[in-house]
Design goal:
Helices cover 50% and strands 16% of the residues. It is α+β, with helices and mostly antiparallel strands and 354 residues long. It has a single domain, classed as Outer membrane efflux proteins (OEP) (Up-down Bundle), CATH 1.20.1600. The strands form two sheets. It has a four-stranded antiparallel β-sheet with strand order 2-3-4-5, with no helix packed on it. Strands 1-6 form a two-stranded antiparallel sheet. Helix 2 packs antiparallel against helix 3 and helix 3 runs antiparallel to helix 4. It is elongated.
Length: 354
């Protein structure tokens, strides 16, 4: 390796392009059976279904995080029948307390809003958004790997079908040769050694058939698993000899391009980049915990011991306030949370040759 390496133009800053449409790329093989298997796998594959469920969960968590940017409204109704103690503290020394039993009706509307002065809510939304994008990239990667594994297993199975057909024709010829050599031996034109050699050749070929059939069964079971069906109840008929081999050899033309462009389209690379964004947002949350949390609250309602006077003006109650919370001592918990990363690193994209 050289002692130093210098990037030469042209070059560009790497950026994920995993959202570029990939489409049903397996259709380029022009095999109807493969097309049907791919559609069944997209609908029934258990791993893909789990990835889709994780994507829906990430979207729900993102919606919950975005809801923190808006005020919260809640409606509450409380109805209590209670006995008030006669020995309760006096509100006026000129009066006397009595024990009473009475109703208390309190309907109220409450509103609250957090002033995001330290950016805690914004960092939470940013983390949830990056996490959702990472899960979406993982879903695309899962679908891409599943489709590729299915296509690979199917092509290998069809290759074995072609090989089995070739060996089947060889067995027919070898059996005819064995019958010919046996007839010559019976006529005394040859020895039993040639018969034994021909029989051994036929036995070896039959053994190859058993090995290839076991290999085909393994690929067939793999295809059954990918399409979401039980292996014992799944069967894929052998391809007719007329078009088995030509279909396998019909490889689609791949357009020319740079390896760097292919890396930008890979969902797993994009998922790693979004994982870094999640880590940055989590670090921002750890920093926001050092600052006060400010909450605006308000309440509007009514309170009365009689239902028919519940909505009278004297029954009106309301409150408006603000609360601020600042951690003074926590035994070093916040500093320990932030200690693994002394300073925030900016998200930098690597440069790639082009």
């Amino acid at each position: 390796m050289p002692a130093s390496w210098t990037l030469e133009p042209p070059w560009q800053v790497a950026a994920p392009r995993d959202a570029a449409p990939k489409g049903p790329w397996w259709k380029h093989f022009q095999d109807p059976t493969l097309d049907q298997l791919q559609q069944r796998a997209l609908q029934q594959n258990a791993t893909l279904a789990a990835a889709q469920a994780r994507w829906q969960q990430a979207r729900a968590l993102l919606a919950a995080a975005e809801a923190g940017q808006w005020p919260g409204l809640s409606l509450g109704v409380r109805t209590v029948r209670q006995r008030i103690s006669a020995n309760r503290p006096l509100t006026s020394y000129s009066g006397t307390n009595f024990a009473t039993v009475q109703n208390d009706y309190i309907p109220g509307l409450s509103a609250s809003y957090e002033l995001d002065l330290a950016g805690r809510v914004a960092q939470t939304v940013r983390s949830a958004q990056a996490s959702a994008e990472q899960v979406r990239a993982d879903l695309a990667n899962t679908q891409l790997l599943m489709s590729a594994d299915l296509a690979t297993a199917y092509i290998n199975l069809r290759s074995l079908d072609s090989e089995l057909q070739v060996i089947g024709r060889s067995i027919e010829l070898q059996r005819k040769a064995l019958a010919f050599v046996t007839a010559r031996k019976e006529l005394g034109a040859t020895s039993g050694l040639e018969v034994a050699q021909q029989q051994a050749l036929l036995d070896n070929t039959l053994t190859q058939v058993d090995i290839l059939r076991r290999q085909r069964a393994q690929f067939e079971h793999a295809i059954a698993t990918l399409v979401g069906e039980a292996a014992p109840s799944f069967a894929l008929a052998a391809a007719p000899s007329a078009h088995a081999l030509p279909q396998i050899l019909q490889v689609p033309q791949i357009p020319l391009g740079l390896p760097s462009a292919l890396l930008e389209r890979r969902p797993d690379v994009a998922a790693a980049e979004r994982a870094m964004a999640v880590a940055n947002a989590q670090w921002g949350l750890a920093q926001a915990a050092f600052f006060p949390s400010v909450m605006l609250t308000s309440t509007l309602g009514a309170e009365s011991r009689l239902v028919d006077r519940l909505f009278d003006v004297p029954s009106l109650v309301w409150s408006v306030g603000m609360s601020a919370t600042q951690v003074l001592f926590d035994g070093g918990r916040l500093h320990s949370t932030n200690r693994p990363r002394a300073r925030r690193t900016r998200r930098r994209r690597p440069t790639i040759g082009g």
